[in-house]
Design a protein that fits this description.
- The protein has one domain.
- Helix content is 82%, strand content 0%.
- The chain is built from three helices and no strands.
- α1 runs antiparallel to α2 and α1 packs antiparallel against α3.
- The longest helix has 55 residues.
- The two termini are 18 Å apart.
């Protein structure tokens, strides 16, 4: 006989685990996006400063193309980050793995049930 109360209890534990996993990985995804934004910003800012310095060293009378590297880096970072929306990070870090975990556990449980059924002795 199937103990439905025990199965319902485990299902509730699994749902709570899934919700906790989703929110924690979403939080992690937002941190990853912030790190990506910071790396892109630093890349543009450092390359701007390097370009300004190299132009000044080659020819001190040359006016730099970009005068304010902070504005340049901010503008270019905003353009680069548009291609990576927040939902993409949440999908990559939270939704897809959670779906794969659910499917994997379901398959494992079905296989174990099938194996157990193979060892049962039929009463005739």
């Amino acid at each position: 006989m199937i103990n439905w109360k025990a199965k319902t209890g485990w299902l509730r534990v699994w749902i709570v685990f899934s919700v906790l996993y989703f929110f924690s990985m979403s939080w992690y995804a937002l941190g990853e996006r912030a790190d990506y934004r910071e790396r892109i910003y630093n890349l543009y800012y450092n390359s701007c400063n390097l370009a300004k310095d190299s132009n000044t060293l080659k020819n001190p009378t040359t006016k730099p193309i970009v005068t304010n590297c902070i504005e340049y880096a901010t503008k270019e970072t905003n353009i680069a980050i548009k291609d990576r929306p927040i939902i993409a990070y949440i999908a990559i870090f939270a939704i897809v793995p959670l779906f794969l975990i659910w499917i994997t556990v379901y398959i494992i449980l079905k296989v174990l049930k099938w194996i157990k059924k193979g060892f049962e002795v039929e009463n005739k």
